[in-house]
């Protein structure tokens, strides 16, 4: 059994959470240009309004805090009232704070997990009943290659993204027989406000627009595992299968952070 893709995004009802900047904003622009009906959400209402004013095709602006279950449910109900439902939930929102053991801050870790793991879970929980009822729909969640295995300065971010991988894998298993498609998206380094915090060289760095192109191509093709750029994400996938002594040697040798 193979999950569905999109022959065209024209007239598809798409809700993007995390559209105020970076990858989410780039996806909103690309999908609008492709003729989709786009609803955008994020906390920063002024950013969303500016995006709406600059892009034709964005038909709904619904500010939301992904850590607030009631807000997410209310946002979806507002969209469903206008459109009757959605064809694709694209969850891009997330937070990143570099964190190592020598400066571990539990509160920062809690906030990271709440936004990066529980946030997508909240959104999926509110759209899933309608998708299951209709036996159709797509759920796409942006994680990170940092979830593949332990990496420096990702003491909270990495585990939150590892959780996304497990969540998406289980969703795929459960939803494929129900006609609902799942897309697990694992970018490498993308030039965004978040990665601008990094004080180290980021290998295979790409633009948000390049990331959006990869994401939409993967969703169109019906892919579950969408990872990029391949020269970097493929290397990290290779590291996952190594015995730990070799894995840690490679990380110390090639990940200079």
UniProtKB/TrEMBL annotation:
<dbReference type="InterPro" id="IPR036291">
    <property type="entry name" value="NAD(P)-bd_dom_sf"/>
</dbReference>
<dbReference type="InterPro" id="IPR002347">
    <property type="entry name" value="SDR_fam"/>
</dbReference>
<comment type="similarity">
    <text>Belongs to the short-chain dehydrogenases/reductases (SDR) family.</text>
</comment>
<dbReference type="GO" id="GO:0016020">
    <property type="term" value="C:membrane"/>
</dbReference>
<dbReference type="Pfam" id="PF00106">
    <property type="entry name" value="adh_short"/>
</dbReference>
<keyword id="KW-0560">Oxidoreductase</keyword>
<protein>
    <submittedName>
        <fullName>Short-subunit dehydrogenase</fullName>
    </submittedName>
</protein>
<dbReference type="GO" id="GO:0016491">
    <property type="term" value="F:oxidoreductase activity"/>
</dbReference>
């Amino acid at each position: 059994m193979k999950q569905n893709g999109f022959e065209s995004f024209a007239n598809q009802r798409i809700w993007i959470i995390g559209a105020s900047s970076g990858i989410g904003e780039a996806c909103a622009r690309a999908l609008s240009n492709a003729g989709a009906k786009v609803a955008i959400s994020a906390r920063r209402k002024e950013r969303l309004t500016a995006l709406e004013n600059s892009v034709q095709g964005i038909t709904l602006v619904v500010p939301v805090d992904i850590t607030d279950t009631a807000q997410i449910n209310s946002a979806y109900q507002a969209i469903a009232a206008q459109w009757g439902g959605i064809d694709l939930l694209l969850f891009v929102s997330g937070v990143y704070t570099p964190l190592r053991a020598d400066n571990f801050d539990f509160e920062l870790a809690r906030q990271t997990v709440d936004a990066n793991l529980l946030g997508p879970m909240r959104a999926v929980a509110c759209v899933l009943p309608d998708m299951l009822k209709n036996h159709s729909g797509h759920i796409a969640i942006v994680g990170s290659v940092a979830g593949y295995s332990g990496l420096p300065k990702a003491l909270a971010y990495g585990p939150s993204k590892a959780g996304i991988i497990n969540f998406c894998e289980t969703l795929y298993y459960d939803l494929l027989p129900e006609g609902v498609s799942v897309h697990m998206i694992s970018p490498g380094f993308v030039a965004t406000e978040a990665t601008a915090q990094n004080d180290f060289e980021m290998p295979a760095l790409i633009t948000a627009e390049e990331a959006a192109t990869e994401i939409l191509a993967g969703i169109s093709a019906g892919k579950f595992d969408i990872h990029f750029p391949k020269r970097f994400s493929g290397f990290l996938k290779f590291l996952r299968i190594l015995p730990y002594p070799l894995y840690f040697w490679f990380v110390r040798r090639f990940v200079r952070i």
